[in-house]
Amino acid sequence: MKIKLFATLKERAKAGEIAIDMSGAMSVGTLREAVAQQFPALAPLMQQTLVAVNQEFAFNEDTVQPGDEVALFPPVSGG
Amino acid sequence: MSAPTILDITPAPIDLNQLQAAITTDADGAVVLFTGTVRGVSRGATGSNITTKLEYEAYREMALAKLGQVADEMRAKFELIHGIALVQRTGEMQVGEPTVAVAVSAGHRGDGAFEAARYGIDRLKQIVPVWKKEWKPDGSSWIEGDYTPEPKDVPAKGLPARAQ
User: Fold this and answer.
1) Topology (CATH) of A2-73
2) Does A57 touch chain B (CB under 8 A)?
3) What are chain B's domains?
4) Distance (Å, rounded) from C-alpha B16 to C-alpha B101?
């Protein structure tokens, strides 16, 4: 599964997009753990990282399906 | 009545006059325009901090959707307002340049346009996926917000926006 990264996460991973191994649907919480395991550079940030699924905020109990658009980013600071 | 709604995430400089004209209808007698600008000097308890420029990055598709949510919430809370413009600029901006614009038109100045504009910029800073990087004389760093979205910030999941 491909995951878009923004701001601090993009800089830490040195990539705007990463891919994680995923066999089927998983919870957002499990996705966080998978990213932390497969990308140690991002692990320290995962606690406060926000997750978006199909361009909407998603929470640990929500489900991610293969093919969903997933993004990880820090709390927003626009304006 | 269909009132104009302008939502944009754009690298182009924000044309404030054009924005005002675009949301003003014949039924409007008041327009409130808020702009955020790049602050070059921030005075604090420990002295002044210098910012040389800001760089903004956006998750554009989601940001546009969230701007739409902010506009919907503004209309639900302030029923008398008419036009709404929510524009966030991206890329590098120098001290003094507008980084964001929130404009609201209404029939009269007492119809909630001031309050709606305030709500709009506050809400934009909570839920619209945009990030700023601050450049100082000795380096740069990403600024992180202090708001963590909850299920109630997702219209389809939590309580409807109008019930908040």
Assistant:
1) Ubiquitin-like (UB roll) (3.10.20)
2) yes
3) 5-39+49-137 (3.90.1170.40)
4) 8
Give residue limits of the domains in chain A.
Answer: 2-73
Residues B94-141 have pLDDT tens digits of: 999 999 999 999 999 999 999 999 999 999 999 999 999 999 999 999
Mean pLDDT of chain B: 94
Q: Which residues of B touch A71 (CB under 8 A)?
A: 59, 62, 129
User: Alpha-carbon distance B63 to B96, whole Å?
Assistant: 24
Q: What is the pTM of this model?
A: 0.94
Separation CA A63–CA A56 (nearest Å): 12
Q: Is A6 on the interface with B (CB under 8 A)?
A: yes
Q: Is A61 on the interface with B (CB under 8 A)?
A: no
Nearest to B68 by CA among B23, B16, B120, B28: B120
Q: What is the pLDDT of residues A47-71, one digit of tens each?
A: 999 999 999 999 999 999 999 999 9
